[in-house]
From TrEMBL:
It is found in: Cell membrane. It comes from Desulfovibrio legallii. Gene3D superfamilies: Transmembrane di-heme cytochromes, Chain C. One of its GO terms (molecular function) is electron transfer activity. The lineage of its organism: Bacteria, Pseudomonadati, Thermodesulfobacteriota, Desulfovibrionia, Desulfovibrionales. Residues 120-279 form the NarG-like domain. The keyword Signal does not apply. GO terms for biological process: anaerobic electron transport chain. This is Putative sulfite reductase-associated electron transfer protein DsrM.
Length: 339
């Protein structure tokens, strides 16, 4: 955990110090272009690799009664048997995290009087679902809001989202709720890994690094808006220059902005090669995108090469004389004239 935190702090410190001593062009121009190219190329490579991967078995994850006799009620969402059922299941999975909503937690009680011994109990655990949903939707709104830096004039739909996000105006500039909520969600996800002993035992560097990186991005973004304020108009001119491949001078933009931008670029570079790629990966997962119809439809393993089968008739034609001599039953007796 601390190694990933130190790495994020080191990246931020290098970006801040480098932009402060005149290397803003490196962190503000060259690095964003490299990050976008790596992100697009990496994601295309991952999706092509997933699309070309054979699916040898029908392995959808099921969570209810499959299609059976007419008088047995089927769970058409958790155990779909046709394409329309898969579409509904994928919609609920992508937009509402349905499988995470069904999450349960197991706990072993040391002594249960009714059982006269230890007993395992299961109960619903919705906290992870709630904070995961909160994080993803808040991050999506923040991502959409940032399009105002890439467009001139700003579309009315983005202005509407900003007005809804900042409807509870506190101070100046107005406070955006998504910034505080996404930070709270990230803190919960980090605390869950730190204080849950079993989860902490399983967590690796690549589990903590994206959390610290996202917290660094959100934290520097909040600081830029409310504390170490930068000139928004100058930032928009600079980003519009990058968008149109005509970079402009970085003069007048403070070093914290380039720290924020560098962390975003690191996230873009890291994204295609990490667990974060589950965003498009869910659409390629056979556990989600297949219907549970293995009892009605034959699934052919694409890994199996074509084979030359030796039928029984061919086998008997080859070994008929030997089989007759051994007294084995034959469908066709040897030709005595040939003997």
């Amino acid at each position: 955990m601390f190694n990933s935190l130190l790495l994020v702090l080191l990246i931020g410190a290098v970006a801040w110090a480098g932009s402060a001593i005149g290397l803003a062009g490196l962190f503000g121009v060259a690095l964003p272009y490299v990050a976008v190219v790596v992100f697009i190329g990496g994601m295309v490579w991952r999706m092509v690799y997933w699309a070309k991967s054979p699916v040898p078995f029908c392995i959808p994850t099921t969570g209810g009664q499959e299609q059976s006799l007419d008088f047995i009620k089927q769970n058409k969402i958790d155990c779909p048997s046709n394409t329309w059922g898969v579409v509904k299941r994928m919609f609920l999975e992508v937009f509402l995290f349905r499988s995470l909503f069904r999450n349960t937690q197991a706990e072993v009680r040391e002594f249960d009087p009714a059982n006269n011994g230890p007993r395992t109990i299961y109960y619903s655990s919705k906290w992870l679902w709630a904070f995961a949903l909160l994080f993803h939707y808040c991050f999506l709104l923040i991502f959409i809001r940032h399009f105002r830096f890439f467009m001139d004039p700003v579309p009315s739909c983005i202005r509407f989202l900003e007005s809804i996000d900042g409807i509870m105006q506190v101070g100046s500039p107005r406070f955006f709720m998504t910034g505080g909520l996404v930070l709270a969600a990230l803190l919960f996800l980090l605390a869950r890994r730190v204080f849950n002993e079993r989860l902490r035992y399983l967590s690796l560097f690549n589990d903590y690094f994206p959390l610290w990186l996202l917290m660094g991005i959100v934290g520097t973004g909040i600081c830029l808006r409310y504390f170490d304020k930068t000139e928004i108009a100058q930032v928009k001119i600079f980003i519009m220059g990058l968008t149109h491949f005509t970079p402009v001078s970085t003069a007048g933009i403070n070093a914290l902005f380039f720290t924020h931008l560098t962390l975003v670029c690191v996230l873009l570079i890291y994204f295609p090669f990490s667990k974060l790629a589950h965003m498009p990966g869910v659409f390629f997962s056979p556990t989600r995108n297949l219907a549970n119809n293995s009892r009605r439809v034959r699934h052919i393993n694409p890994w199996n090469p074509p084979k030359q089968f030796f039928t029984y008739a061919e086998y008997e034609d080859t070994y008929r004389d030997a089989m007759a001599e051994a007294g084995l039953p034959l469908e066709k007796q040897p030709d005595k004239a040939a003997e």
